[in-house]
Amino acid sequence: MNVKAIDNWSSGNYRYLIASVAAVRLVLESYVAQWQNQRFSDEQAPIQAAIDAASALLPTPSALQQLCREFKLSDFERDLLLLCVGMELDPSFADLCARSGGGEELGFPTFNLAMSAFAAPHWDAISPHRPLRYWQLIEVGGGKTITQSPLRINERILHYLMGVDCLDEAFKGIIEPVYYSGELVRSHDSITTQIAAILSNKWGNIRQLPITDYPLPIVQLCGDEVGAKLAIASTACEISGMKLAAISARVIPTVTAELNNLILLWQREARLSRCALLLDCDEWEREDGAKENAIAQLMESITTGLIITTRDRRPAPKRPLITFDVHPPTKQEQLEIWQNALGEIAPSLNGQVEVLVDQFNLNAPTIYAVCSEALGRIAGESKDDNSPLPLGSSAPLPQLWDICRAQSRPRLDDLAQRIDPAATWDDLVLPEAPRQTLREIAAHVRQRTKVYQQWGFASKGGRGLGISALFAGSSGTGKTMSAEVLAGELQLDLYRIDLSSVVSKYIGETEKNLRRVFDAAEGGATILLFDEADAIFGKRSDVKDSHDRYANMEVSYLLQRMESYQGLAILTTNLKDSLDTAFLRRIRFVVKYAFPDAKDRAEIWRRIFPKNTPTEKLDFVKLARLNVAGGNIRNIALNAAFMAADAGEPVQMKHLLEAARTEYVKLERTLTDAEVKGWV
Q: May I ask which residue range the UniProt record assigns to the signal sequence (predicted)?
């Protein structure tokens, strides 16, 4: 309805309700007069004329008419309901109820009064199985008998009859209305259209399902695109002329009585306001059996429009279920969203938007948030130096790139350790072969979209388009530093995940933990560094018992996610020989980190001190006699720097000697005279 029609309906609805209440008051006045043996002029014509005049104003039936039709109220039940409405709207009703024979102590509607005063009474109207009480349209107060107990209209029903559009107060903190106007991409349009047809009860043409007692199937939206799923559900409801409200799986009550009452009240609400319910299971991990049972009961009991959002498919209940997988926007759709969000700046970026699309896999809300923040920064910088908004060249790209990285962090920050890259290629002391492999890895990450998409290698098949690497070598040989160098080179975030803390003894938990990490990282194509791969890998391909079988499943899941991951995933291990060759074949790059020889150790010592660190008479050849890896060298240098700073001196060999002794104690090794001969 347009605004004028809505105004006409509101006015006509109120007048219709007041006239209907007046008709009930007339019946009561006639009954009171008869009870008191008084003459009464029963002039119904003016009231009927008022009802007819109000009906003429209504473009659609009044709320009272719709409620009676929806809940199949008899004329007597309708009059009983209006008796309770009159008590709320007309001050004279209390006196009429009292004068009807009950006295002042019964100055309220009762079932006994309705049975006596109204036409065509029937006893079962007050039965718990009839609409008035089953749907809680009226409430029965405490009293000596059912027939003499006070009757009161339910507050939500009163608001509904008055034309007030609001959710039941009983839903506060549990079910909330959804107001969402997110933009849909083309690939989501068809899903939206099909859901709208389902909600409009035209789903028979979409998919053949068994005929059941349920008028509508459940709609299930699966995937990690939370915002897109909400936009699809909201838009589908709008198309089908319905509203949408949402409930989180976390707040569904598990107490049977509470759950049953919630389901009943929602069924009532859905009929009153043509509202579908969105059951949000996106963050629910299915760990609570009682909660799972409550969710299943809700799914099977609600017969009105029900949409479920979940990351993984839920098992089908008794009610028919139609599932749609909601995928992220395609690269082309992302490009169009970027161009629209950037506005006039987009054409001036000379193809740099495509670089962002190639690297980051962002949905529409995130892209708009990134552009809004970036344009705000650029406008602020331009205002500060009185220069116009920078167009052309590459001015806006650093802001956009950094904000894209920041937007991808929140979910991952709770699951892994972010490492700020500090090392550069100059800090990395490695033979040429592993350095060249690292350069190839960087090239693969940079040119992934060009080779796979533009040059067509993606169509040639293979296990996946992800880039995976194994860094193998003893502790301190440069594995983590290499990951830092790659992150700095590619200007990407680096997150470290300790696989030993991810692995769980409970079946399925390891995969669940890994899924959280990959799902959270996918949007930003972050570099993932899985440390201690020995915790999950090993020579496990020979299945001897159920534990081996599940261990292999964990490894297979990790490799499958690495192969499909849009970014770079790195495994580190101290024991490459312990890894099964069948698993190694699925990893694209293997970088071996040898223990540094004396020449390499001397070079590491030369590079270990920052340029601002004061040093004095350091002999790197003598320092290289220490038979330790690069990580230990860094620890010794750092400890020595603190000693020198505390003594107010530059770093000298004596400080390094003391620091070396401390490090060797930690390594549970003996510092030999040959290693430190001639140091001081």
A: none
